[in-house]
Input
Amino acid sequence: MSTFELVWDSRCGVAESPVWDRANRRLLFCDIPGKRINALSVDTGAKESWDFPEVVPSFGLARSGRLVVALRHRVVMFDPKTRAITDLTATIEEPPTTRLNDGKVGPDGAFWVGSIDERSPRQPIGALYRVTADGRVEKRADGIANSNGLAWSPDERVMYHSDTAAGVIEAWDFDVATGDMRNHRVLARLGNEDGRPDGAAMDADGNYWSAGPSAGCINCFSPSGELLAKIPFPVPGPTMPCFADEQMYVTSLREGKSAEVLAAHPGLGGLFRAPAPATGAPVGVFAD
Output
């Protein structure tokens, strides 16, 4: 893979959830503590940002042209044209030390979002939820310390997830008609030196690309959990890859980095791009 380039020096506290908006040819990503979603036109380089009243951990595209957006303890709909924010769910009942975290739209048209314990060390008190267009919230897994890495296989039959704190990448058989998950298995266990699994993306061959911020790398795993590639990232703290056209975009974080690290890597918290090592799998659209 060619060298990554910094395409938006956004200096986000935690840049996350890069999403390819194919219809509008723009790459969207959020700054969680900055309470913002950013949009980059990949053709013109034009930049736009939308601010929110709370932290913005993740979001996805909706059929209506709006975005389905996770905030601290609720999910809302956002219209980029009018900037209107509409509640989709009531407050999701979570322990007081958690907030919502990684979220993606599944092939079932629902928004899947997990939670994270904000304390250190993180405790396994979070959960994974399925949110439908009528605002219904279903808890689908629990015992999670840092929910991350949601992705689905190109044939829509396998759902992937990671718990960053536990260093685990896991999978279930997935029923796209009902959103049911069965046959849970652990595909990989990773320590700090391996790159604990953070955000992820799926390629068209069914391989799972996982950001490893603890090791400054992007790991690629086969459907059975075999490590196929480990790509070094130019700055510490990559958070999530995203395939867009023939490019791979990767977000990164600044939060928690020392003054020495920030001086050595001033682009931390920015959006990076390199020619894609694979073709990305299609991503889901919220069925609103």
